[in-house]
Design a protein that fits this description.
Largest sheet: 5 strands, mixed
Structural class: alpha+beta
Strand content: 15-25%
Shape: elongated
Bound molecules: 2-(butylsulfanyl)adenosine
Length: 715
């Protein structure tokens, strides 16, 4: 055990090196590196399998293991019996009795591409002789493997995988899982073993962690760790209260006859009372299996359990015996894995972004890391409270994850990898943009810059003013807003209405190479002109008043009916409006009390922008000006209903994705349209966000300040 402290102090182990032959030509350096990798991997193995408390992500572990495999392939003389390439898992914990598995629990080879799968299939074909053979596909559940023994139809023993040969006896704990049958029904063999995966549902995990947070207990990092920690409790009563479940995916050894097809075996087990995954599919060939993988890529997020791949198995189990095992991996199965969604990397520093209302939000600047196929160097940290709660420090090694379409998040620090050099982060005392001392309002969590002339706030406000849910000025994004501001042409949104071709012509950004005014500048002017007729609710949202989201803007428009009405409304009066609370009412009244805002409203009216609202703002305008395309299968409604809802709210429904599509709604299975949308730079949204759009309109599509920032820095 002496090697652990040494390793903890050495961060180098996290760095993978490209395993080209050049790099390892020198056998001496290969020996050193393989020793380093071996002890590092053994350590991480122990953390993962015995302590249920991994320090690095699975993807980083796999990268290190692959590097070691590559070295050992080159220099077989360097392979040692204790190399992690020679076994699966780690020594079981001595706290439970040890169980010798009658047949070892194997591991699965990994495939990452179609080519890998073709090779797997070809190698099997080479051994079995020609012919098409059917393949099954099923989700690879991200939990922990268990082996359950039944005698005369009764559950007699349940064990963990352990190192594959010997596991831990956790029968008492597994008995507490309601989905593990204690006695079987129908016809069953006299004695046999089944194998499956114990997991925790995502929803159960969230609830349990929220509960733990409330009690001040340590939080689990993810459902897998949580499931592993739960079944390995020494007190079964604790296990019994955890939201655990099981899917049986395989027959182990069997004294008695059994079906010779994998799919039929699962049906046979289901008939005895085992919980079998209903998502297992049979494909006549690999093409069908490949389509199913694409289908899963879209759908996996919607399952209430984590999956980390799709397992492919030959359906005919007589072929399993003929093919046998290579090392610890059967030749008749392979696991297809997607690019990792979670990685570990170094948090270089924490920076602070200023939003349009002056609110300061921290974000993480990371050592770039490839996540879900894209390089990530920034991640959101939400707010100061979140940083403190998770104890994230500058210089930490952190776990980063990408979930759905949102920008990556920092899950938390890897505390055991701290060197002592990390620094605790505190929010700045002054605004990073204009150096004005920041303030925190009583009873509010956020810090903000009170200087309404702060350059960053101004640029963000101009951008927000032009947004789709605001004045909808096409072509006025962050970049244009910055050029307009820094050139001095636009300091306040109302200055937009004083722009002309001549004035834009004084700034290089709006000129062609030939020195003429550019097409996009002409479009900008046309867009500004068109915006003059926007409804009051959009204009009120566009003003960027603190706490006034689109919904509040609608209530305000209905209540105040005009800009004049807004400026005359007192906090007391606004508070009476159903849906407007005291903080929001005060914020609005304060805003209209500032002389510069009085001047702003006067100037808007002088430019002819003075919309009147007669009667309540109809919900039927919510999606006016938006064109949406729906693809794939939604869970909460049919595609037809989704399209009807869009039309009812004043939006247009497009048949295909074009440059003028506002957003593509992607349900399960929507593949080719998504590719087209990505190519054209059209926003894709998932069902959750779509449901919000139906409630809040285009405002739901507004990028957050951090997303805007990320897109600028990444561009
Ligand atoms: S079949 C020969 N099917 O993945 C091994 N395994 O790397 C047979 N797993 O620890 C495994 N879901 O616990 C199989 N549907 C599934 C699975 C699955 C999760 C786990 C299994 C094992 C690991 C293999």
């Amino acid at each position: 055990m002496a090697w652990w402290p040494k390793l903890v102090a050495s961060l180098d182990i996290l760095t993978t090196m490209p395993a080209t032959s050049n790099e390892h030509q020198d056998q001496y350096s290969a020996r050193l590196r393989s020793e380093e990798l071996r002890s590092g991997l053994n350590y991480h193995n122990y953390r993962y399998h015995v302590l249920d408390n991994p320090e690095i992500s699975d993807a980083d572990y796999d990268a290190l293991l692959n590097e070691l495999r590559a070295i050992e392939r080159h220099f077989p003389e360097l392979i040692t019996p204790d190399s992690p390439t020679q076994r699966v898992g780690a020594e079981p914990s001595p706290a439970f009795a040890i169980v010798e598995h009658r047949q070892p629990l194997l591991s699965l080879s990994n495939s990452f591409t179609r080519e890998d799968l073709d090779n797997w299939r070809r190698r099997a074909g080479d051994r079995l002789g020609d012919g098409e053979f059917a393949v099954t596909s099923e989700p690879k559940i991200d939990g922990l493997a268990v082996a359950l023994v039944y005698e005369d139809g009764r559950f007699v023993q349940g064990a963990t995988r352990g190192d594959g040969r010997r596991g831990e006896n956790i029968t008492a704990n597994l008995r507490t899982l309601k989905t593990i049958p204690l006695s079987l029904t129908g016809d069953f063999p006299p004695s046999f073993e089944v194998r499956g995966e114990v997991y925790m549902t995502k929803s159960g995990f969230e609830t349990m962690n929220a509960d733990r947070a409330e009690r001040g207990q340590a939080l689990y990092a993810n459902p897998r760790n949580s499931a592993a920690g739960s079944v390995r409790q020494l007190d079964p009563k604790i296990t019994a209260n955890r939201p655990l479940n099981v899917f049986i995916y395989q027959l182990g050894w069997c004294d008695g006859s059994h079906p010779e097809s994998h799919l039929e075996t699962l049906q046979w087990l289901a008939a005895m009372g085992f919980r079998v995954n209903p998502e297992v599919a049979l494909h006549p060939d690999l093409d069908g299996a490949w389509e199913r993988i694409a289908w899963w890529a879209e759908r996996r997020e919607r399952l209430d359990y984590d999956i980390d791949g799709v397992v492919m198995k030959l359906d005919d189990s007589r072929q399993w015996e003929r093919l046998g095992v290579a090392g610890r991996e059967p030749r008749w199965a392979t696991a297809f894995k997607w690019p990792p969604q979670q990685r570990t990397t170094k948090l270089k520093r924490i920076e602070v972004n200023v939003g349009r209302t002056g609110v300061l939000t921290p974000f993480a600047v990371l050592e770039p890391v490839v996540l879900g196929g894209a390089t990530v160097s920034l991640a959101t940290l939400h707010n100061e409270g979140d940083i403190l709660r998770k104890d994230i420090r500058e210089g930490d090694t952190v776990i980063v994850q990408r979930a759905g379409e949102v920008i990556p998040q920092v899950v938390g620090p890897v505390v055991s990898l701290r060197t002592g050099e990390e620094t605790v982060f505190t929010m700045p005392a002054d605004c990073p943009s204009c150096q004005t001392p920041v303030v925190r309002d009583e009873g509010e969590a956020a810090l903000y810059c009170p200087n309404t002339a702060c350059p960053t706030q101004r640029i963000r406000l101009i951008e927000h003013f032009a947004g789709r849910a605001s004045m909808d000025i096409e072509g006025l994004g962050e970049r244009t807003a910055r050029s307009l501001y820094t050139s001095g042409l636009v300091r306040s949104p109302v200055d937009l209405y004083g722009l002309s071709a001549e004035r834009l012509g004084t700034v290089d950004d709006f000129l062609t190479k030939g020195g003429r005014i550019s097409k996009s500048a002409e479009n900008l002017l046309a867009g500004i002109e068109k915006s003059k007729s926007r409804p009051l609710s959009n204009l009120l949202f566009a003003l960027g008043i603190r706490h006034v989201g689109f919904e509040t803007a609608r209530l305000l428009a209905t209540h105040c009916q005009s800009l004049e009405g807004l400026m005359a409304a007192s906090a007391e009066e606004l508070q009476e409006v159903d849906g407007i609370g005291p903080i929001v009412a005060r914020s609005i009244a304060e805003w209209s009390g500032y002389p510069e805002n009085v001047a702003l409203i006067e100037r808007l009216r002088a430019h002819g922008i003075d919309p009147l609202q007669e009667g309540p703002v109809a919900a039927s305008d919510l999606l006016a000006g938006m064109t949406m395309v729906v693809t794939g299968t939604l869970e909460s409604m049919s595609r037809e209903t989704a399209e009807d809802r869009i039309r009812e709210l004043g939006g247009k429904v497009g048949g295909g994705v074009t440059k003028s599509t506002t957003a593509l709604v992607v349900g399960a299975g929507g593949g080719s349209k998504r590719t087209k949308a990505e190519k054209l730079g059209v926003r894709t949204i998932d069902e959750d966000l779509f449901l919000r759009v139906l409630q809040e309109g285009a405002a739901a599509l507004e990028l957050t300040a951090q997303e805007t920032l990320a897109s600028i820095l990444e561009a």
